[in-house]
Amino acid sequence: MTLDLKFIRSQFPAFSEPTLEGWAFFENAGGSYPCKQVINKLTDFYMKNKVQVYYPYPASTLAGKLMDASYKRMADYLSVDETEIHFGPSTTQNVYVLANAMQPLWKEGDNIIVSCQDHEANAGAWRRLEKQGITIIEWHVNPKTGLIELEDLKRLLTNKTKMIAYPHCSNVIGHVNPVKQISALARKYGAVTVVDGVGYAPHGFPDLKGLGADIYLFSLYKTFGPHLGLMYVDKDLIGNMENQSHFFKEGITRSMLTPAGPDHAQIAAVSGVLDYFDVIYNHHFDIEAEPSERCKAINRLFLEHETLLMERLLTFLRSRDDIRIIGPETTKNRAPIISIIPINKNIKKVYAVLIKHKLMLGIGNFYAVRPLMDMDIPTQPGVIRISFLHYTSLEEIDQLIEGLQIALDN
Question: What CATH number was assigned to the domain covering residues 5-34+291-409?
Fold first, then answer.
């Protein structure tokens, strides 16, 4: 079974939008196109159900049910309990709330390990706890490869370690970290693991119970949905955290980590992502399956297609002696987030030529300042980042390769 790309692209209005015609989108790590199921649900909610929720009149009752469905269906796809799913305005905001909720669990002299491979969203708020007497231990990346290594982590862990924060996949390095192994190692020391899944989740929703992480975060606007951050927090852990909502919300887990209150419409629209996944599954498979099994089957389709695209691009990049690839140079344990630096040409001039070739890419540090610092790469202008998803075509990869050739050879 291979991915039916024509069918997939028919689910995204962007691919039939006249103003985007001819443009190839390679900045998906910054935010994906939304699927039509999400757009329709968000529009419907604003038209029909934009009222306070959970009252006994029809518009309000339905609004509450639509929100509840997003919690339940997302939990089923991620293999967790619905009480463990939390929606906030962004992953960065969710981490700030978490840091405030968890800080009272620790005492002066305790330490937390913060990866230097992280997007600053899963680093900055933890580092601020140093002002509260918590010792911050940095888990640096390998300066040549950009990888964080288990042997280095083992040397950092002590009986004072209370938490490890790191990415499932860096948004500039692209390497997929061994979350299951890191989680098992952390448990031996009684440490909590906080995993930033923002870079990884767009390429396939993880089986969270299987990974063993205590907290996992990702952004729904990067996974075809509305502009929200999703947090999974183990239900045994949240009971020990300090309530961040109103005092009368104490013990109501859905509210304790959302001090500003929920965005009703966007939460209701989240289930549109799962409608999209169901449509993909039903189009490609004729076997009934539970949501978690559907997720695994879809992930295999995504991985196969993205690996094919990645291999074509990496083969071209490896053939050049005037490009530096940041991170792994093969598809093994790699997501299609590929950062490059031209060696002989000015990076901004190369980037400008790529834009003229109708390629939508990013340039900069992408808030991943620390891994670039560890690798002695200037954070400005940074790197050119190429990121794509399962809806990207081979023709778009070829358009990218052609643009790179023109930018580098002329």
Answer: 3.90.1150.10
